[in-house]
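ok so heres the complex, two chains, lmk if somethin looks off
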Amino acid sequence: TQLLEQSPQFLSIQEGENLTVYCNSSSVFSSLQWYRQEPGEGPVLLVTVVTGGEVKKLKRLTFQFGDARKDSSLHITAAQPGDTGLYLCAPRMTTDSWGKLQFGAGTQVVVTP
Amino acid sequence: DTEVTQTPKHLVMGMTNKKSLKCEQHMGHRAMYWYKQKAKKPPELMFVYSYEKLSINESVPSRFSPECPNSSLLNLHLHALQPEDSALYLCASSQQGQTLSSYNEQFFGPGTRLTVL
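and the predicted structre for the whole thing:
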């Protein structure tokens, strides 16, 4: 299993503030997915990034994939209480066998009104 | 239909019981997965089925027995579980892709909250 770091572990912010979550490894990712999980539910796929340097936007969420494909970030602008949840990065390593999705430790985001 | 369904939503069982978790998808996906998730932790892969055949078993104890009766259904049979097996059990499915270029985007069900007494 490759070393995968997701940070921070926990973020508590007020509505309207911005936040960024990071996912890093010393290994190269062939692709990376971001999921959000709400309490008592399964993770929901937000985005897949594939190309180094890629930026994707989903409403107030901006996802970046590092040029070297070893890191990714998720930025939320003007967070709302509905953004509360566990954010998980899930990269596909170039050395992974098919079917294995390695999840980061997760970032618990709490947005208070 | 873009949904993965799981039943039951909650399950409480004793250590001597036998029970089964069920998962269903109608997206035409040919890969299905079982994950275990403890509180405040990410999901941990247990099993992967590809074209109804078990392709990955992550050294899961034999008290967990997966079954894939057809391409839409996935079961997890439970027997003689331990209290430490209490967790959220998640099922997921994805398009089948055999190459490293496939993204393996997985769609998750809501999970079964299992409590072992």
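quick notes: The first strand of chain B starts at residue 4 and ends at 7. thats all i got rn
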